[in-house]
């Protein structure tokens, strides 16, 4: 079930006796947990009817006792087991999950990895309650996720601003949501977010960032490339070589796939390469700048500089010096 549908039911006071939230992406686990805590009990009921335990410190007998206790001056109790991946006795709750208390809501938060779906306890949770698996969002899905999330906040965002957020913040959905909330408060409802807003309020330079460097390399805009590289030399945190090399590798790997994709429409490239249509358009526009033979040589070059950036075979040159040498070879070799 989609996280938004689960939260909608929770807001409508439609609760399951068991919830098992697991997976690599913690954002949705936290979101559902917050919704249950907010709507399950009234403020005055929480002192006596809400118990939060943590996997590393929780004791099995104490947890079982909390699960079987009766609510005090309330309709239900809420028991939350956070960081359940550190709880060594999870499968000992198998019998409870077969016949959960009708007056207790038991929430298990199992983070950073998925629980084994073959285990009987998970099947019991599915039969008598609700399971939600929170998968890590893939890089190519991130721009779409940002655009959709922005719309849920009564905002709009242009393609470049979307890509800046995706490239700079990565798949940290919680951080992305926080930054968008900041923009919503500053800009107000129904605003349209652009790259100037990103630069001014989030601190990502619209002109001097890794996304712009990759674009400039892709378009063979040498002057712009070396201006950005110089900016990185004076602002090391804005663009470190160990981050730039993977970004360039990702781009040239995608470009190689574009060359060998028969259908060169933007929609087909977006689907076959697994990128946002905005990125697909950029790849198509720039593919004539690098033929497959040149791309293969660049990928080998990037592998070499990745090792150098990590201190292998490089005892003299600094990160900025290595970056200058790398982009020069990409543009002119």
What does this structure look like?
With 333 residues, the protein is of the alpha/beta class. It folds into 3 domains: 3-133, P-loop containing nucleotide triphosphate hydrolases (Rossmann fold, 3-Layer(aba) Sandwich), CATH 3.40.50.300; 139-202, Helicase, Ruva Protein, domain 3 (Orthogonal Bundle), CATH 1.10.8; 210-332, Zinc Finger, Delta Prime, domain 3 (Up-down Bundle), CATH 1.20.272. The chain is 56% helix and 10% strand. It is built from 17 helices and 7 strands. It has helices at residues 3-11, 26-40, 46-49, 60-68, 94-98, 120-128, 142-152, 159-169, 173-187, 195-202, 210-218, 222-234, 241-259, 266-274, 277-286, 292-309, 319-332; strands at residues 18-23, 50-54, 77-82, 104-111, 130-133, 156-157, 192-193. Strands 2-3-4-1-5 form a 5-stranded parallel β-sheet, sandwiched between helices. A two-stranded parallel ribbon has the order 6-7. Strand 3 (77-82), helix 5 (94-98) and strand 4 (104-111) form a beta-alpha-beta unit. The longest helix has 19 residues, at 241-259. It is elongated and about 75 Å long.
């Amino acid at each position: 079930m989609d996280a938004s549908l689960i939260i909608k039911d929770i807001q409508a006071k439609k609760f399951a006796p068991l919830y098992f939230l697991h997976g690599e992406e913690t954002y949705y686990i936290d979101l559902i947990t917050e919704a249950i805590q907010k709507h399950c009990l009234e403020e005055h009921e929480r002192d006596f009817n809400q118990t939060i335990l943590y996997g590393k410190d929780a004791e099995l007998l104490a947890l079982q006792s909390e699960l079987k206790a009766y609510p005090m001056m309330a309709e239900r109790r809420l028991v939350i087991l956070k960081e359940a991946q550190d709880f060594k006795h999870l499968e000992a709750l198998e019998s409870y999950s077969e016949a959960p208390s009708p007056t207790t809501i038991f929430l298990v938060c199992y983070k950073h990895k998925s629980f084994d779906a073959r285990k009987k306890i998970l099947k019991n949770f599915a039969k008598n309650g609700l399971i939600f698996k929170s998968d890590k969002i893939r890089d190519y899905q991130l721009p779409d996720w940002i655009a959709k999330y922005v719309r849920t906040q009564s905002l709009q965002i242009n393609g470049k601003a979307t890509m800046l957020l995706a490239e700079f913040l990565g798949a940290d959905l919680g951080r992305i949501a926080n930054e968008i909330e900041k923009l919503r408060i500053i800009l107000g409802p129904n605003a349209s977010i652009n790259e100037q807003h990103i630069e001014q309020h989030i601190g990502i330079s619209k002109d001097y960032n890794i996304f712009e460097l990759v674009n400039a390399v892709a378009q063979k805009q040498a002057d712009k490339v070396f201006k950005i590289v110089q900016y990185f030399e004076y602002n090391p945190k804005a663009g470190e070589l160990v981050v730039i090399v993977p970004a360039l590798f990702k781009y040239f790997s995608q470009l190689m796939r574009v060359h060998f994709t028969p259908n060169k429409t933007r929609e087909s490239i977006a689907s076959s390469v697994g990128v946002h249509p905005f990125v697909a358009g950029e790849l198509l526009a720039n593919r004539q700048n690098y033929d497959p033979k040149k791309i293969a040589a660049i990928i080998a070059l990037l592998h070499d500089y990745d090792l150098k950036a990590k201190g292998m075979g490089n005892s003299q040159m600094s990160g900025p010096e290595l970056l200058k040498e790398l982009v020069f070879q990409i543009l002119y070799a």
